[in-house]
Specification:
The chain has two helices and two strands. It has 84 residues and is of the alpha+beta class.
């Protein structure tokens, strides 16, 4: 019984090898194309709020800072990659 089942699996796996290889290549290609991280760079203004009494900000301060954010692309909706 098990030997017959194994022979059936082996015979099915051996047929249409070219189509199976093509399907595997397409699947891996699609996975790699959709599996990239998305990156977004923005500039944000620097603000000091609620500075404790007795503390002072001294020296040059930057008006803006650059932020770079990365996240995995969403498998559900890859079109909203920049809707954070």
């Amino acid at each position: 019984m098990i030997k017959q089942l194994w022979e059936k699996i082996v015979s099915l796996a051996g047929s249409n090898f070219g189509l199976k290889a093509l399907a595997l290549t397409i699947a891996v290609g699609l996975w790699l194309a959709g599996h990239r991280d998305t990156e977004r760079a923005i500039e944000a203004p620097v603000e000091f709020r609620s500075i404790a009494a007795g503390l002072l900000v001294i020296g040059k301060r930057a008006a803006h800072v650059g932020l770079r954010m990365m996240r995995p692309r969403s498998p559900v909706s890859p079109s909203d990659a920049y809707n954070w």
